[in-house]
Structures
1.
Amino acid sequence: MSMDVAKIFDRLWNDYTIQNPHVRQVYEAFVAKGENVVNDHIAFRTIDDPRISIEVLAKPFLESGYEFKGEYIFEDKHLHAKHFEHKTKTDAPRVFISELVTRFFSEPLQQTVKILIDQIHSDILNSGELIFSGRHWKNISFKVYENLRKESEYAAWFYVWGFCANHFTVSVNHLSEMNTLEKVNQFLKEKGFPLNSSGGEIKGTPGELLEQSSTKAGKQLISFIEGDYEIPACYYEFARRYADANGKLYSGFIAKSADKIFESTDNK
Ligand code: NI
């Protein structure tokens, strides 16, 4: 059954802003400046297990009029990603879904991840609900979290948060006054929101046709078996796209830039 696209994004946005109060604060600061906030893309994280792979997460979007547009490899982080765009609704955000390629990791990591996925109810796996469904494993261990983090911050993040929008991204092209990333970043810093500065505050160049920046993920207190710890949750991203030589606005992603954006949720 296909869902209305706007409903999908409203629901994801609602969950995302409840879990990440700084995102709502940034959004409201833009609106207070009279800006019209349009989403460039939203992103999800998953694992390459066929039960919860990119294809599985993409299903509700494909059923709602989205189509495959691009594929990306992140060699250092051992990630694989695809992006999707709506066939007719040009204002619908792009959807970017990445997955951890587990064969590059240790046997214990692969085993840990498999045990987590085994706990997801098959009803959820085969429904359009997976993208909204959060974490399916109840008792999480800080020791397991730390072990995952030694190999992959991405795997550790997934262990705590499961399925949700990892970030929404504001289209800077649609902002009227704050129409450059320099202006956006300056505004965020003045308001006291820390930026991800890994690889510089602005990732990408006009020559690459895409510039991106992001907040650092806010930390949330999470209950582990061993006690409560503050763990990075989600971040808010900003993207400015440029036209190519033919005057067509670039619509893809730059792996080198996205590689650094992934670090917005690193626990360091
Ligand atoms: Ni992004």
Note: The mean pLDDT is 95.
2.
Amino acid sequence: MLVKVAVFISGGGSNLQSLIDKQQHYQVSLVISDKKDAKGLERGENHGIPSIYIGKDNYPDKEARAQEILSLLQSHGIEYIALAGYLSIVSDSIIQAFPNKIINIHPSLIPSFCGMGYHGHHVHQAVYDSGVKLTGATVHFVNEMVDGGAIIAQESVAVGQTDSPDIIGRKVLKIEHRLFPHVLNQLTAGKIKIEGKRTYLQED
Ligand code: GRF
């Protein structure tokens, strides 16, 4: 029986697509977007996955939004949640209902270039402006602190001296599309253990 996973999105859904394409130990069984026009909703629908907009337009009240999301997660038998470019803050009630079962992909090497305001292109612009020679992507557990959960995996890439922020973003996105499904397969296969802020991969 494959482990049922929900993917939360806000935009194009290229990470959602890679999670769908590379599922082995898990099955993407629900897509939730906080943006009504997110292209990722179409990607879910194209694969016959229930893909639902839940945002300020149809659930203006924050608590009601969280309750509706929780009810959908339960009715779809979801065991893990993957945040794939999801821009809203996940409510505490959802985090508490899914302890160490929510992961996020962040397009930098946390703890650098993360926290409030560091999302999407803003991250790569800050990397460019800072002059660092390495950047990359991080998959981490989600807790109540934005980008503050225990780190599970990271992969780095060189920042070329002629790289623009867009080029940097493209290099990092390629890593994301590989790293995120890889980690989600390990997590849903029960291979990742967490102790405080440290995580351990159990070899076969
Ligand atoms: C991208 O900036 C990616 O780096 C980050 O979220 C954004 C969404 O990408 N993880 P997509 O919607 O998965 O294409």
Note: Helices lie at 14-21, 39-46, 62-75, 92-97, 121-130, 165-188.
